[in-house]
Amino acid sequence: MTRGSRARLAVAAAFVCALPLGLAACGSRSPDKTAPRQVFRFRLREEPPTVDPAQMTDNLSEAIVMNVFRGLVAMDPESLAVVPAVAASWTVSPDNLTYTFRLRDGVTFHNGRALEAQDVVWSFERVLKKETHSPRRWLLEPVTGALDFAAGKASSVTGLSTPDPRTVVLHLDRPFAPFLGMLTMGGASIVPREVYENPEKSYLRAPVGCGPFKVVRWEPSSLIEMAAFDRYYGGRPAIDLVQARIIENQVTAFQEYRTGGLDSLDEVPTDLPADVEPEVLRYPLLGIGYIGFNLDRAPLKGNPALRQAINYAVDKEYLWSKLLPGANIPGRGLIPPGIAGYDADLPGYPHDEAKARSLLARAGYPAGRGLAPISLWFNTSGDNRRIAEQVQADLRGVGVPVTLREVDWAAYLKAVEGSAETAGEAQMFRFGWSLDYPDADAVLRPLLHSKNVGPAGNYFRYRNPAFDDLVDRALTLVDPAARADLYRKAERIAVMEDAPLLFLNYFGSMTLFKPYVKGVTPTPLGEFRIPLERLRLEKPAS
């Protein structure tokens, strides 16, 4: 699932973490005291693993983080252009090395303190610090001196400065084409030092940002509430309260939607009733679904023929046209349609059992003889289970034995991520990736660059110097066509030669919204990036 499959956490005993609600209202729009409160309710399949922007890597966490926090810049959900956020404007030097951001006036943290340039410096240094163990450190590594600071060789980042309280300057070692897009990610959010220095880490249940909503209640494994922030620099949202209801079971969640307990639902049943069909919003997503291979564990280690055989054995057309019909389409590679560098001529791995058997023999396992069962891990979800079972059946058909391991989210992440030094337990794992910014770099580098082996994103533990070189060179180019050509070459190496994963699908989204929910902005960045501050409810009078 995007930046991690959505899975289930064990139900904990009820524990309510009540947070302060009162903050003085001085936003551009004051709530109408006579109108009924506007409460928008959506579903999360499980509790977010974290709401710390420096630690976020999955879209459950993103559903909260992207509404509570803001960075210097943001991504427009429709055009995918980089737009102002905390920074009112910015300039880039002619040599593409120096980025100067001018902060907007009136930006306030949820604790009431005004945001200043030094908060940006501290937030960025926090992400880079070795002690933070941030899997998003790579966002800021292009800044001059970032690596030395991260390694503890310097007390500050030389390329990060604040000429005055309203200006932030970032200087890079070399041109880095997707840098602005990377700064729109949640990991580049700005946080108040006085809150995030707390050794007790109370911010893990009481996050403080400067976004349109603030967390006001958290009932573990049940509910997260976010109230409109009256002093949000973009104007107070029309929605007064957002309720993220944690509902694990898909059937239960749909029943809640049908009976009015939810205003939106991210998981649409395949047997959708006809009367609900008009409420489905369909739109493409920038992302891929896959089953990853652990290249540091046998038998997939050092055996590309086995990995290619597995790819040919799985019938992706059946998966997305028959088993789980909807918005997903069969995948051929890593770069999704709609991104510069997408290769329409990439062969991929069409279903071909004869070719799978031939490659299996070349891998040293004719008809599967001598091949021990391979474990396929997935987190608890009805769709994940159905996909895993079908993949298991397809592989059994060519002689590859597979055992299924369905576990909760915490156990799943541990088995998949491992550490930078040690591989996780999972040999194969069901996962996915949604692009955080519309650039081929946003999928190739986080997932497959050797510098990101382990929790940073390269769970496959894939290492290929030729691939790394192409991806690194593309970062320094300004010409979009030249960059796209290098990305296509890199993708071909990874997909057609090394096959570090089973390429399942390019993402599409089907999301349910009640007809009275207005202001919905579909975005290829994913359903949890639909801006809640734009929503309003126009329910008929009862």
What are the main properties of this structure?
single chain, 542 residues, alpha+beta, D-Maltodextrin-Binding Protein, domain 2, Dipeptide-binding Protein, domain 3, 2 domains, 7-stranded mixed β-sheet, 20 strands
Structure description:
By secondary structure, the protein is of the alpha+beta class. It folds into two domains: 17-250 and 514-537, 3-Layer(aba) Sandwich (D-Maltodextrin-Binding Protein, domain 2), CATH 3.40.190; 283-508, Dipeptide-binding Protein, domain 3 (Roll), CATH 3.10.105. The chain has helices spanning 59-68, 117-128, 146-150, 179-182, 193-196, 250-258, 304-313, 316-323, 353-362, 382-396, 409-417, 441-448, 465-476, 480-498; strands at 17-18, 39-44, 73-75, 82-84, 87-92, 98-103, 160-164, 167-171, 213-219, 223-228, 241-246, 264-265, 280-293, 329-330, 374-379, 402-407, 428-434, 501-513, 517-518, 536-537. Strands 12, 13, 14, 15, 16, 17 and 18 form a seven-stranded mixed beta sheet that branches. Helix 7 runs antiparallel to helix 9, helix 12 packs antiparallel against helix 13 and helix 13 runs antiparallel to helix 14 (480-498). It is globular, with a radius of gyration of 23 Å.
